[in-house]
Amino acid sequence: LNPQGEDLAKAMLEFAESKPITQEGVYFLSIHGSQQIQGKKILDDLGLTDRSIPTLENRIEWIKRHKEMILKSAKDPLHELWWGGVASSNPFQFLAFCFAWADYLEQGHNALCSLPIYQDGTCNGLQHIAALTGDAALLSITNMYPGDPQDIYLIIALRVREYLLNTNKNYECADFILSHPKLLSRDIAKKVVMIIPYGAGLD
């Protein structure tokens, strides 16, 4: 068990000493729970089509709208399997959140919580480069400026797709890549982009 483990390992970790859930804690706990859900799922459920990434407010709203299902999942997770379907990538971390959220909904600020809340940056390596260079465009797409959240990995994936569409005749693998959307996914772009600031080369 370690904080860098797989979904089940992370879900099983708790702090030895529980703390009451403060109002600020409610905010961060709801964000943590929503981060186990894919952004597209949140946007689709909320009927939002004007953005590609949910805002923190969108995430909190999604948690509020699914209050009943969260409670049912926490009460009887072996029979109410909604939690495993809605959080297909991190089901056990989401279930751990459901338990903590149900405690809060039932006990209010008297509820004790020992669940770690994970926080991460947006491609930390590029955030450091943006801060050091002051590059306005990089600061923007790595979320160093206030405003709607940006997703640098998705942006790059879309730009690569656009590039291949515009240079189709000059790149022999373009047709193959364009016909296999998973090769131009955000996840593939992340694996390539996030290691660049750490000295990754072409080899």
Structural key phrases:
mainly alpha; two-stranded antiparallel ribbon; 12 helices; 203 residues
Q: For the record, give the distance between the C-alpha atoms at the N and C termini, rounded to a whole number.
A: 33 Å
Largest sheet: 2 strands, antiparallel
* Residue share in β-strands: under 5%
Helix share, percent: 40-55%
Count of strand segments = 2
Spatial strand sequence of the major β-sheet: 1-2
- Alpha-beta classification: mainly alpha
Helix segment tally = 12
Tell me what you see in this structure.
- The protein is mainly alpha-helical and 203 residues long.
- The chain has helices at residues 7-12, 23-34, 39-46, 56-65, 67-75, 82-86, 91-107, 124-133, 136-141, 152-166, 174-178, 186-193, and strands at 19-20, 112-113.
- The model has no long low-confidence stretch (mean pLDDT 92).
- The protein has twelve helices and two strands, in the order αβααααααβααααα.
- Strands 1-2 form a two-stranded antiparallel ribbon.
Q: In a few lines, what is going on in this structure?
A:
This protein is mainly α and 203 residues long. It is built from twelve helices and two strands, in the order αβααααααβααααα.
Q: How do the strands and helices of this protein lay out in sequence?
A:
Layout: H1 7-12, E1 19-20, H2 23-34, H3 39-46, H4 56-65, H5 67-75, H6 82-86, H7 91-107, E2 112-113, H8 124-133, H9 136-141, H10 152-166, H11 174-178, H12 186-193
Antiparallel strand pairs: 1-2
Helix pairs in contact: 2-4, 2-7, 3-4, 5-7, 10-12
